[in-house]
Structure formats: C-alpha cells, structure tokens
Amino acid sequence: MLSRLGALLQEAVGAREPPIDLLQAFVEHWKGITHYYIETTDENTPAKKTDIPWRLKQMLDILVYEEQQQAAVGEAGPCLEYLLQHKILETLCTLGKAEYPPGMRQQVFQFFSRVLAQVQHPLLHYLSVHRPVQKLLRLGGTVPGSVTEKEEVQLTTVLCSKIQQDPELLAYILEGKKIVARKKACGEPDALPKDAASHRDKDCSHHGAPARPQRDGEPCGAQALNSPLLAETEELDGGTAESNLITSLLGLCRSKKSRVALKAQENLLLLVSTASPAAATYLAQSSPCCRAIIRHLCQLYRSMPAFLDPTDIAALEGISWRLPSAPSDEASFPGKEALAAFLGWFDYCDHLITEAHMVVADALAKAVAEKLFMETLQPQLLHVSEPSILTSTALLTAMLRQLRSPALLREAVTFLLGTDRQPEAPGDKPCALYAHLIGHCDHLSDEISIATLRLFEELLQKPHEGIIRSLVLRNLEGRPYVARGSPEPESYEDTLDLEEDPYFTDSFLDSGFQPRAKPRPAPATSYDGKTAVTEIVNSFLCLVPEEAKTSAFLEETGYDTYVHDAYGLFQECSSRVAPWGWPRTPIPLDLHEPERPFFEGRFLQVLFDRMSRILDQVGSPISPLLHTF
C-alpha cells in the first residue's frame, strides 16, 4: 500500500506541464487587442481600464523569454519574426495616432521603448521597425506640452543609447525609407532578418495564413483604422520626417517640465558625441541638427526685450544649462526670464561643442558664428542707437564669460578681431567690427566706453593666443619701439636697488648721505621677482604720508595683501600662456633692419589716450581757484 502510494507521488512529481506554444500565445494576445476594436463600442473608456496594457505586457514578456531561450542559437524567434512580418509596430503607431481608446498613445510609446530596450536582437535596421519609430517620434513632437512627454523622452533615451552603441543606426532613424530604397537598388535585403525564411513556412503552415499575413493583425472595421490613416502609414517618409529625432529632442528640450527638458538635453548631447567619424559627418552635413539647435538659440535671443540694462545683464550670473532658470534671490527686472533662458541655451550649445565629435563641434561653432554673431549681433553692435549698442555689448560680454569650448572661442575671436595678424599701421582699414569696438572704447558716451572696455577685459581673460597677439603683440614684434642706433637697455634686475631711488637720496641730502656705487651683481645670483615687487612698493610708500596709510593695526589691509592677490593673478596668467611657447627674453635687435615708424596699435593707442585724460574733470569745477591749484 505504501509502495503504491509512493509510486503515485513520484509519478505526480515527475509529471511535467505540456510545453507552451509561445507563438500561439503571442498571436492570441495580439488578436485580443485587435478584437477590442471590433467588439467595443464605448469610445470613452481609457486605455488603462482595458486589457490592452496587460496584453502588450504579455507580448513583451514573450519576446524577452523567447530571446533568452534562443540565446544559444543567436537567431530571431518565431514571435519576433511575426512582429516584423505582420507590421505590428506600424499598426500600433496608427492606433496611437488615433488616440483610441483615450491614452492609447501613451501605451504605444511605452511598448516601443520597452521592446527596443529589452530585446537585444538588432531591430532598428528593419523597415518595419524604424519607419513606425520615426512616425511615432514625429507624432509626439507635433503636440507641445503633451501628456506623453515622459514616455517620449524615454523612447529618445533608448534610441540615443542604441545609436551610441551602433552609430550606423543614425542614418536609419533620420533618413528612413531613403536607406531602404538605396538598399533595394543595390539588391540588399530590407526588412526581414536573415533567419526569417526558416520560420516563414512554419508560421504559414501553423496558422494557415499566406506568406504576407498582414490582414491577420489588422483591426478590421474599427474607426481608428480607416482608410486615411492606413494610407498615411504607407506613405513615404520625406520633408520634415528626416529630422524627426532631432526635432523631437528639441521639442522636449523646450518642455516646461524641468526633468523632461534636462533628460532631452542629455540625450541630444549623447547623440552628437558619437565617436564614429562617418556618423558625425552625416550628423553635421546631411542632417538639420546644427541648424535646428542654432535656430532655437536665435529665437531665444529675439524673444528678449530690445533694450536691457547692462547692469542687470552683468549681475545675472550662475546660469547653466542644467539650471537655466534665474536665481530667485536676485532682483527681478523686465526680461529676466527670457535672458536666463537665452544664456542657459547658449551655455548648452557651448557644452555641446565641447563634448561633441570634432566634426560636429566645428559645424556647430560655425553655425553660431554665422547665425548669431554675424546675422544677429553684428548689426546691433554697428547700430548708431546708444541703447542698442549698450544691450548688444553687454550680452556679448555675458556670452564670452560663459564661453569654454575652444572651437566656439576661435570663431568668437575671428568675429571680433578679424583674421589679420600683420602689424597695424595708422592708415590701415581693419575689420569693420573691430574698428567700431575700438572706437566705442573712447566713445562720447561713458556708458558705451565702459561696456566696451569690459568686453575687451573679458576677451583678454580667454585662453586664446590670437587675442593678445592681435591686440598687442603683433605691433611689438621686431621691437620697432627701440631705436636701432641706441644701445641695449640694462636688464630690469639691475635697476631695482633702493639706494638709487631719487626719493631716498632726496630725503637724506641734509645729512650728507651719498649713494654708494652700485656693485656689480654676482653672476650666480638669482633674481627674486617677488622681492623686487616688495622693494618697489616700499619705495612708493616712502612718498605716502603717514595719515594716508592704512592703519597697521587692522588685519589684511596692508599692501602685502594686494601684492599677494596680484601675484596670484600673475601666476594664473603665466599658466595660461605657458603652452604658447613665448620666449623668456627679448629677441636681439637686428641692427641692419631698416627702422620703421612705431605704431603701438589701435587698442593700446585708445588705452593710452584714455589714461592721458584720466585726470580730466567730467563736470565744471566748483571753484576756478581750486581747479588751477
């Protein structure tokens, strides 16, 4: 008795469930979705309250499970083949566009994202996959502020990740059916995988369907699948369809939801940083990526008020593409949000150029220079209206403050200073914008002069050798400021002895103190620049009355604090110019070279002219006696 019971238990444990036919289950779930459109008449029931989300989830699970079982074989399973042959994604895209039942578009976006992310088999090469993906992206991008923004950005995240892994997919997603047309012309396969033939006959014999069983998966009789929509799903992609991924990302970047906008910007950054030279060349030359990005930048610029206070522009700091909104603790002014949006997107463009492939970076930088600098900013800088000059100069200064990418800095330098690097002459005709900016440094309006000098100050702090060479060094090369017949001046180190300072000798004339002869410096003695600076400052302090000096009892008010700050700035400048390979000593004069008139250049000339008038009174003196005194 016990033995028979044990045998029965062993037989029950060893019994196995009959194997599940995955393809049959997959087809049943798909037919369950299509039958909903045939049998249901209530058009107001949300998609979440139907069995459509559950059936889509089951179809996804079957695809993933089937792929795991086929991992050793490395071929597409019958369920995946059925998905491709019967254009299920095409039909779902049509259902999503019809938004029937309500919320169906959200379910379609989620299904597309999950299939592309979880199914490891390459799918985007196939026409029956990348064409509905294109249409779905274009569908989402046409609805500003859509409720499906979260799902849209998830789909773009998956697509950009796939492109990062396989840059060849970029052309499929952007061009679409043009790729297929070229492949057909060359005799290449288009939509079906290589292993599709092994399952096609099996699929047809199993279900009794023809070789192209497209009607088997179509929801016949449903209002959502009427003839206009079907015709639209079959039309060729063209026009704006080529740029659907780019336009979708840019549309999501303008989302009011900060997380959605930030994620879209990160996806676009991932897209342009592809390491493939061919994909980067295609992205820069054959796609509207650069034009679309810069077009949005120019739109943000034009959306700002025509005139902004330069003080407000300079005070708005800390704007980043990750945090584009203006800080709430700062004072509000008209146009603050528009200004913050523009500076945030400009910072994003600068970051794109820094991180993008070199080909894309150069194309973006040239587009910024052409569309923003040349076509938008230059007319305002050359305008005769004082408010226009002030606003555009302050905005350009703010942009230079945020600029970090070498490619965009190179274009900005060319825009502001031109390309001529030969020594200047008084009769030359320099770049029109450069000449105007130099003239603005000594403008009748002090506000314009100060704003333009701040622009040059910001420009001189940038790590670009062409800036200092164009403004100063090109006019000093060859040392034309030294007369050819005069002897070489003594080194600077030999002129720093305090005993030769006339202020010291004058103060001791009555005591009979006479300066001793200057000793010859020892050859091995090294020059300490820091000590020399201290001696110079001490020499100057001998002239300052005690009443005018800062109290020695106050902390951090002595001159050494300022010397320390100046030394830090000097070290910063030294590290910046170190890669440029400047000589540490002046080039010896060529005595046989003919002497030419020295011209310090327009930039130094205007600075020296302003320095010569630094003591001029701005207004009328209170008393002529005080003025003459």
UniProtKB/TrEMBL annotation:
<dbReference type="Pfam" id="PF10257">
    <property type="entry name" value="RAI16-like"/>
</dbReference>
<feature type="region of interest" description="Disordered">
    <location>
        <begin position="190"/>
        <end position="223"/>
    </location>
</feature>
<protein>
    <submittedName>
        <fullName>Protein FAM160B2 isoform X4</fullName>
    </submittedName>
</protein>
<dbReference type="InterPro" id="IPR019384">
    <property type="entry name" value="FHIP"/>
</dbReference>
<feature type="compositionally biased region" description="Basic and acidic residues">
    <location>
        <begin position="190"/>
        <end position="206"/>
    </location>
</feature>
